[in-house]
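> example.struct
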């Protein structure tokens, strides 16, 4: 019987569980509600009924109590998928941020431990 080894995350930045943190995604001037599943200094995985096209440039606005002001992050869609949840199917998409910010660093410090 072969020994199974855990899959190692090879991303440059560790991902942190964002506990379905609410956010707004703006694409082509239209805002859509979404939820941040996990986040790192380089990007995030979001779930939404809205599914942006692959390669789309968009912005994500996160308003949460650990931050004094909304955190606005811009980036590009690098992955798309669908997830089946109890309420129904939702779009899951990954955004790679175009830059980091002090607000993002504060948010990540507040979220705690990396995903296992």
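> example.seq
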């Amino acid at each position: 019987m072969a020994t199974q080894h855990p899959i190692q995350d090879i991303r440059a930045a560790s991902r942190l569980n964002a506990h379905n943190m609410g956010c707004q995604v703006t694409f082509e001037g239209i805002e859509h509600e979404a939820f941040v599943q996990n986040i790192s200094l380089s990007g995030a995985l979001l779930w939404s009924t809205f599914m942006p096209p692959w390669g789309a440039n968009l912005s994500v606005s996160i308003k949460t109590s650990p931050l004094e002001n909304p955190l606005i992050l811009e980036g590009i869609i690098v992955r798309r998928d669908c997830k089946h949840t109890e309420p129904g199917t939702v779009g899951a998409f990954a955004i790679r941020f175009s830059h980091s910010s002090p607000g993002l660093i504060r948010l990540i410090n507040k979220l705690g431990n990396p995903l296992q």
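> remarks
Strands lie at 16-27, 30-39, 43-48, 57-62, 71-85, 88-97.
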